[in-house]
Design brief:
Oligomer: single chain
Helix content: 55-70%
Number of domains: 2
Radius of gyration: 19 Å
Strand content: 15-25%
Shape: globular
Number of helices: 10
CATH topology of the largest domain: Arc Repressor Mutant, subunit A
Order of helices and strands: HEHHEEHHEHHEEHHH
Length: 187
Amino acid sequence: MEKEKTKSIIESILFARGEEISLSQLAKIIEIKKEEILPIVEELVAQYREEKRGFSIVRNGDNIQMTTNPQNAEFVEKTIKKNLQESMSRTALEVLAIVAYRGPVSRADIEAIRGVNSSFTLRNLLMRGLIVKATNENDQRGYLYNISTEFIKKMGMEKIADLPNYESLSKDERVESIINLNVQNQS
């Protein structure tokens, strides 16, 4: 595959994913060897730095992630603060409900339930402090999302089980069948 095309694919994946990804996983998706992807990623990192773009690519060991340029932090912070002060969208409430009733839950399971990408919504909820993420012990490439203590406090509850219909909705068999179907399709 042509190097410029590979760069373009990497940029698209990093942007759409919204969180870090391992070089191995990235190489597998693009269908090239890990050894081939490393110099391309390093070139992209340097290119973003030299051209002073609005985004940068951060490498942390074997993982990479697209982030905003640190030089623009002041302006990004203003935007984020404004967004966080606004009311939540229907999408954010939907994802928050899934995390509340199904957590800890993976992004893949959230997306299987919703049927659409939820990366940006999860990031927004993380920034608002309403959810937390932890490494998934069953899949080191992904994270599990759960409700934060801040969410429980803001809702005026003592524990997550105080949510309305928590017992029945947290174990809903229809949702379980969607998640199981998603797991089967990934195998």
